[in-house]
Amino acid sequence: MIFLLLSILSSSAIFIIFKLFDTYKINTLQAIVFNYFTAFSIGILSHQNTINYTELPGKPWFIGAIILALLFISVFNVMAITSQKNGVSVAAVAGKMAVIIPVLFGVILYKEHLSFFKIIGITLGLFAVYLITLKNKTDKIKKGSLLFPLLLFIGAGIIDTTIKFVQTNYVASADTNLFSGILFGLAGIFGIVVYSIKPSPITLKNGVAGIILGIINYFSIYYLLKALDIKNMPSSIVFSINNVTIVALCTLLGLFIFKEKLTSKNWIGIGIAIISILLITQ
After folding, report:
1. What is the pLDDT of residues 230-253, one digit of tens each?
2. Does residue 281 form part of some domain?
């Protein structure tokens, strides 16, 4: 359970950092590229065995790492477009409701059992995410503008599902650091390709911001992989608790750190989220 808690805390910290990027006028794409190579370095340095880079393409998880790296870059851009076209609340709802995809994947492929209380808990959790991300009365999804939210929903769900699939079938426990590091390294390479399309002057401020983000981002994935590796913790439960708690925690952090205002629906959502977690863990 400690790995799941650490994953939640580190993932929540990422949202806070992105909020600070806007405050301090950080170039997000530059910071993202620095972040990936920082996370890559941590993963490589943390791997205890000698690394033969010529053998990496032969690793059973290497193809999965390439796919995930491409998804990381693609879904990040879809998230940015969704936030701009549909609003941050819609982007948050689309991204976090995607938990239903890995949950269903775990039940269908791995025959993970869902009790009545767990089903109710997951359903309440999805509803809680919706309530938490509503900021005002006009915060509604616009009709005829659902393409990017739908792509974000599918993309975020595929990422979580692919991480679980690759981790379960191909990543040995001793390779967790190496897999995480290579995954981020490949994402960094793809990030450079995207950056080269619309380059901008690189600054020290963006680099430092990216390094800080990279440290936290690495451990968010590392601890999630460790949580998924727990034998008595089905992936459906891990993803449900992880996503719902992150949204609730980020909402509270926004309240206390950035003085964001919460509506009555937000508070009801937080309460439902807590109830859903208690049901899911039964």
Report:
1. 777 777 788 778 878 887 888 788
2. no
256: tokens are: 């206390």
Task: Measure the CA–CA gap between 17 and 242, rounded to whole angstroms.
Answer: 18
Which ranges constitute the DSSP H helices of 98-136?
Answer: 100-110, 116-133
Residue 9 inside a domain? The answer is: yes
The alpha carbon of residue 66 and the mean position of all alpha carbons in its chain are separated, in whole angstroms, by 17
User: Within a domain: residue 265?
Assistant: no
Q: Which residues contact 136 (CB under 8 A, 6 or more apart)?
A: 263
Tell me which residue range forms the domain holding 161. Answer: 2-121+139-232
pLDDT digits (tens, 9 = 90+) for 197-221: 888 889 999 999 999 999 998 898 8
Q: How far apart are CA 276 and CA 282, in angstroms?
A: 10
Whether 188 is covered by a domain: the verdict is yes
State how far Cα 197 lies from the chain centre: 25
Distance CA 265, CA 270 (A): 9
Count of CB atoms situated within 10 Å of the CB of 160: 24
Count of beta carbons in the 10 Å neighbourhood of residue 175: 18
Residue closest to 74 by CA, chosen among 170, 186, 167: 186
Best CA proximity match to 210, nearest among 46, 36, 81: 36
Domains in the chain, number: 1
Tokens of residue 16, six digits = 């806070």
